Amino acid sequence: MITAEGLGKRYGDKVAVDGISFTVRPGSVTGFLGPNGAGKSTTMRMIVGLDRPTTGGVTINGKDYWQLTSPLTEVGALLDAKAVHTGRSARNHLRAMAATHGIPNSRVDEVIDITGIGSVARKRAGGFSLGMGQRLGIAAALLGDPHTLILDEPVNGLDPEGVRWVREFVRHAASEGRTVLLSSHLMSEMSQTADHVIVLGRGRILADAPLSDLVRQWTTARVHVRSPRAAELADAVAGRDVEVVTTDQFTLDVTGLPASRIGDIAAERGIAVHELTPTSGSLEDAYLALTGDSVEYRTRAVPQTDAALEGALA
Amino acid sequence: MTAIQARATHVPSPARNLTFVRQLRSEWIKLTTVRGTWWSVGIVAVITVAIAFAVTSAMSGPVDNIMMAVLMPVQLTMLIAGILGVISVTGEYSTGMVRSTFTADPVRGSVLAAKAVVMAAFMFVVSLVVFTVAAIGISPIAAAKDIAVDWADPAKTILPILAASAVMALFALLGVGIGFLVRSGAGAIAVTVGIMFVLPIILQLLGMWLHDLPWVLSMVDYLPTSAAPDVILPSDGGALNGPASWGVLAAWPAVALLGSWAVLRARDV
Predict the structure, then answer these.
(1) Is B13 inside a domain boundary?
(2) First to last CA, chain A
């Protein structure tokens, strides 16, 4: 269990984390979601005591990280894949980490095996690819067989097999009753991995809810309709709480009515319907709706001129 | 049900926790598994042996103590000791390793202490071996010139070797302290070289220029590089007495380590 209360971090004038409170419970996977600069990494660094909070605090099972008698067996952290001396071999890196807690070399070889870095374990970590470095970081986090896993962007740089492995691994860890906190900017990944999502934006918590609630609450179900008499149908379904967007002569997007009701209305009036597709919201929609105003590093919208679209379609 | 059972199996083994002795072992593994360490040891050995042989070969007639040939190169190799101390720390900062180190042991002072103890012990033992080997190595050349390496008199051989090894360890500690204070490798090496080789020259020049202020020139005596020869092969002409020289040699690394302890506690990793 990770408990943050009024946790805040300020670098000079810049507020990275703005007095947030949250709880990460054992037995489920909690996702930290947010745009770059939202404060995810800073929060994780404060959990393991690398950065000191300017306000509030965060505890692991009721203790500050520095009070733990056995940090590596209580918490496994992957904060930065490049937290490894480039001149040292992967195995020696893990041996040095393990030695601090009297973890035997047999466990070192075990995590090397689990994470599939056996073929490069005796090579210098400086030459590792992003994916191999990530696997080494995960291996280090697993050394102490910890109760709590804190993984910052764990699938970053991994191949599809590695991504699936991480997903299954964290789900399994949670099913064993461990506490899992992972961050990702990949919403598709988060929607397949997390049970509970904490959305951060500009250092504040925008949402803290079960994944399904979040999606339901922040997205609207829409029905995509195609009909040769679209305009007529649009008038027929119109009403309070119903929003109809006419895309072109034959296409409507209806919000506020279920697909079945639209179909019935069309049937009552003898209007042919060529397509009736309900689209439910995704985590991505929820995320964009939530973080719309809190993106710190906004990209400029790609100009969508007709010429560009035609070019893309051609 | 299965979840509860699984949870029960993950009670941490009480044997697997953080202790200072285990941290020493971890720091030992870290020190001995990077190439820079062995390059430093190799350079210290080569410089010491080469200069010892050259000086002994060039000798003619009686000398006060032949160990001078073996221990004079400390004036150079103590810089290698300082630099090794620096890079053992700055190598962690530049690669990000330091985050792994402080995650495994969040108590900043204990990381500093473990690193300092291992570095000092390593440098002391390495120096002891190198100086002893060099002393034995030059014996035949010296003997051919009727100069004996006097192992029977500890004050002439064993004590100077022990003193020189301790000096090497103290300079390595100075490097560790400066490494934690400065964090950047280039910056920390510059500061170390500055204290060891630039500061004496500057103070001497200032002393000559400000000859009305004799204390400026006498500040040179309180630099670690000035105190080192006095403790290795004490002579009557030394500016400070033995204990005072040891005090100067110990004070520099002590201040650097205490300073780094203070900043480590205060600052983010």
Answers:
(1) no
(2) 53
Domain assignment of residue A244, given as a range = 220-279
Query: Is there a domain that residue B35 lies in?
Result: yes
In a domain, A262, yes or no: yes
In a domain, A313, yes or no: no
Residue range of the domain that includes B45:
19-266
Domain tally for chain B? Answer: 1
Q: Same domain for A129 and A234?
A: no
pLDDT tens-digit readout, B105-162: 999 999 999 999 999 999 999 999 999 999 999 998 888 888 888 888 888 889 999 9
Q: How many Å is the maximal CA-CA distance in chain B?
A: 89
A87-117 per-position pLDDT tens digit: 999 999 999 999 999 999 999 999 999 999 9
Give the minimum alpha-carbon distance from A53 to chain B in angstroms, rounded to a whole number: 10
The domain that holds A71 is classified in CATH as 3.40.50.300
What pTM, to 2 d.p., does this model score? 0.84
Determine which helix (DSSP H) or strand (DSSP E) holds A57, and give its type and residue range: strand A55-60
Cα angle A76-A36-A38, degrees, rounded to a multiple of 5? 75
A84 to chain B: closest CA residue: B97
**Region of poorest pLDDT, from A129-133, A181-185, A244-248, B17-21:** A244-248
- Among the partner residues A51, A70, A96, nearest to B18 by beta-carbon distance: A70
Query: What residues of chain A, 210 to 269, have a C-beta less than 8 Å from chain B?
Result: none
A51 and A21 in one domain? yes
Are A151 and A196 within one domain? Answer: yes
Q: Which of A185-189, A306-310, B217-221 has the lowest mean pLDDT?
A: A306-310
Q: What is the pLDDT of residue A283?
A: 74
Taking 80 as the threshold, does the pLDDT of residue A150 lie above it?
Answer: yes
Read off the CATH number of the domain in which A231 is found: 3.30.70
Cβ separation of A102 and B12 shorter than 8 Å? no
Which residues does B contribute to its contact with A (CB < 8 Å)?
A: 2-4, 6-7, 10, 12-13, 15-19, 22-23, 25-27, 29-30, 33-36, 91-92, 95-100, 102-107, 268-269
- Residue A310 is assigned to a structural domain of this protein: no
The gap from C-alpha B231 to its chain's centroid, in whole angstroms, comes to: 15
pLDDT of residue B3: 36
Q: What is the DSSP string of B39-77?
A: HHHHHHHHHHHHHHHHHHHH--S--S-THHHHHTTHHHH
A4 touches chain B (CB under 8 A): no
Q: Provide the pLDDT confidence category of residue A298 given band limits of 50, 70 and 90.
A: low
Q: Let me know whether A154 and A41 are in one domain.
A: yes
Instruction: Note whether A89 contacts B: Cβ–Cβ < 8 A.
Output: yes
Q: What is the dihedral of CA B199, B200, B203, B206, to 10 degrees?
A: -110
Q: Tell me the pLDDT of chain B averaged across its residues.
A: 90
Q: How far apart are CA B209 and CA B252, in angstroms?
A: 26
> What length does chain A have?
314
